[in-house]
Amino acid sequence: MPDSQQIPDGSSTTLPRVLHTPRSRALLSESWAQAAEAKRMERAGDDLQLTYEAYAAGEPCRACGRALLGEPALGTDEESLALIDADNAEFRAEHTACNMGVWRLENNRVEHCHLCCPFPPLSPTQRDELRQLLYPPLLHIDRSATWRVGLTCQHVETLVGHSPRYVEPTVQCTECAVIRGVVKAVRIDDQAKAGDGGSDIEGLQPDYQRLTDEQWSWIKHIVHTEEGTRRGRPRTDIRTIVDAALYKTRTGISWRELPAEFGSWQTALRRHNQLIPSSQWDEITRTLEERDLPQ
């Protein structure tokens, strides 16, 4: 369920449902997807996957040329089986660098490489059974959600007709024309229903609202600020440091990913670490929890 918060007039407003995907995870998903796409493009025009009709007719594996359906014509006597085993050993030696092992079908001794050889296709009956398991007839699959996603390239895409609870970890960026990882996704149809002007969103800031003056008044006595003048570059305000640390904790990002509005991430990290040994940070978070404030 979406979160709710009280607004000054005492009524309650529904906040948009937000999905957070840390940038580091998005970059990893992006690299995997781009590698898979490069492999697919490399094999374009050279489809190694058999159709079920070709498989049922006895066509061998298109990757290695070895039998898939039934035993080779050598027979099933001990001498023939020994020849098959020797052939399998030679095949495994040729694919040692694949590091994926081998597979073989039931009632067939011929082995195939996990990396190089695609699995046999499903039969029409198997496809129907799998479809029934994944998509039961009585299950309504809601594809009405609209998401706005921020990508690793800093571009923003709008996804229409998606699941209300899930967004794929990678998206094809229309501006870059390549696959990018999703760093942040916001359901803008929820915002429109709440009358929050979802279509006018300009950015994708994580679901953290900086401390108000009232909230800061409850915890500012916990931290100690320096008095008097100080040489060199102006010191980052301790309130900004606390906000930065709460933001980092809430969103799950790394310190390096801290937005520029919080100043230097190295400074925020260093001063946050100074608050921990003295138990000041524990007291800050405990005070906020006791007053039931979002962190």
From TrEMBL:
Q: Which InterPro entries does the entry link to?
A: IS402-like_dom, Transposase_6_like
The Insertion element IS402-like domain is annotated at: 211-284
Q: What is this protein called?
A: Insertion element IS402-like domain-containing protein
